[in-house]
């Protein structure tokens, strides 16, 4: 398993990590993903560790804390062998202080996560969303206190806009508080919006991308094909409304290219889609998920081999879309291209 530095930090993470949204799954979203109990979770963790995957990602909002609890049970007795990433800020109740990133909320959320996970520190704590109602100074000074207390080792964010992340980095630098080193983002062959602004920002500022939903919210599993209905039992039938939309023509164009490359390489469609992401700038780790051992082993097969330059170009061409303003106007002009070389 390849390990990469997480942004500008000294922490090294595996190029594949495991997302535990299926652990203890309940409710209309997470229940549709899966309902892995502690015994099954321990087996999946075993397989990950055997393959060199030691980073496990969760969040307090996943099944109202059940994912953290099941993960804690699955890693019991081997905390020193794993890295834990969890997230907070999304609503965990109906109370006025049950959401956001205020000082009281962050401290309470961290203590609750530590209890559910059965540990005394979190390797990477990420804000699950930007809290526009709390001053950035309050957020970052609280995270600084949690790091100094030894309860959190690194901090990051998820789903931030470029200005939100850049403002936070500037405030952290001004006060000497911990800088965000990770940005958990949606990125896939059918969702390349990350490249327009967040990727250049990440490369400039030393932010490592942790990629969620690398298979385009279940669309790039190899089961969806042009001219065929969504297969019975697909989680898309119940959860498509929760995830990022994808135009049909883009989806089928990408699926056609994936199937061609899969046939050329002898790999599965998901393996090709995940492997492509590992070649992209700023990507530190791609978060894979699995409801069972077979899915996990297939996803683990996405690394340890390389796509050819021609295959990468084929996938890039099939998935490329025109960026919106202000990212597109000058890309066709030679002078602008010299100032802003494309990322490959």
Describe the 3D structure:
The protein is an alpha/beta fold. The protein has one domain: Alpha-Beta Barrel (TIM Barrel). 40% of the residues lie in helices and 14% in strands. The protein is built from 13 helices and ten strands. An eight-stranded parallel barrel has the order 3-4-5-6-7-8-9-10, surrounded by five helices. α7 links the parallel β8 and β9. α2 runs parallel beside α11. It is globular. The two termini are 22 Å apart.
Briefly summarize what is shown:
40% of the residues lie in helices and 14% in strands.
Task: Outline the secondary-structure elements.
Layout: E1 3-5, E2 12-14, E3 16-19, H1 27-33, H2 38-51, E4 55-57, H3 66-74, E5 83-88, H4 103-117, E6 122-127, H5 136-148, E7 152-158, H6 162-175, E8 182-186, H7 198-205, E9 208-212, H8 236-239, H9 248-265, H10 269-278, E10 283-288, H11 293-300, H12 309-319, H13 334-339
Parallel strand pairs: 3-4, 3-10, 4-5, 5-6, 6-7, 7-8, 8-9, 9-10
Antiparallel strand pairs: 1-2
Helix pairs in contact: 2-3, 2-11, 3-4, 4-5, 5-6, 9-10, 9-12
């Amino acid at each position: 398993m390849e390990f990469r530095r997480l942004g500008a930090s000294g922490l090294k993470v595996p190029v594949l990590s495991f997302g535990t949204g299926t652990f203890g799954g309940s409710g209309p979203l997470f229940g549709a993903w899966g309902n892995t109990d502690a015994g099954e979770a321990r087996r999946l963790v075993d397989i990950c560790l055997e393959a060199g995957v030691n980073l496990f990602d969760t969040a307090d909002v996943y099944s109202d804390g059940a994912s953290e609890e099941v993960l804690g049970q699955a890693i019991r007795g081997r905390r020193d062998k794993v890295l834990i990433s969890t997230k907070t800020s999304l609503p965990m109740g109906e109370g006025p202080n049950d959401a956001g990133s205020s000082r009281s909320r962050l401290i309470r959320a961290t203590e609750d996560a530590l209890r559910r996970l059965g540990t005394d520190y979190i390797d990477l704590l990420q804000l699950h969303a930007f809290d526009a109602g709390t001053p950035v100074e309050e957020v970052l000074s609280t995270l600084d206190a949690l790091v100094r207390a030894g309860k959190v080792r690194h901090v990051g964010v998820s789903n931030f806009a470029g200005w939100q992340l850049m403002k936070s980095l500037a405030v952290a630098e001004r006060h000497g508080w911990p800088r965000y080193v990770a940005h958990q983002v949606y990125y896939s062959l059918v969702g390349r919006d990350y490249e327009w602004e967040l990727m250049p920002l990440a490369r400039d500022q030393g932010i490592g991308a942790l990629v969620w939903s690398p298979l385009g919210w279940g669309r790039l599993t190899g089961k969806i094909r042009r001219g065929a209905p969504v297969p019975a039992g697909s989680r898309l039938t119940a959860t498509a409304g929760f995830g990022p939309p994808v135009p049909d023509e883009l989806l089928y164009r990408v699926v056609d290219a994936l199937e061609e490359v899969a046939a050329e390489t002898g790999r599965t469609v998901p393996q090709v889609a995940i492997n492509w992401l590992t070649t992209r700038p700023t990507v530190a780790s791609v978060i894979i998920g699995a409801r069972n051992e077979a899915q996990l082993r297939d996803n683990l097969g996405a690394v340890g081999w390389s796509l050819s330059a021609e295959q990468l170009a084929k996938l890039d061409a099939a998935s490329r879309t025109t960026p919106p303003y202000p990212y597109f106007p000058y890309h066709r002009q030679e002078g602008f291209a010299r100032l802003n070389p494309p990322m490959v």
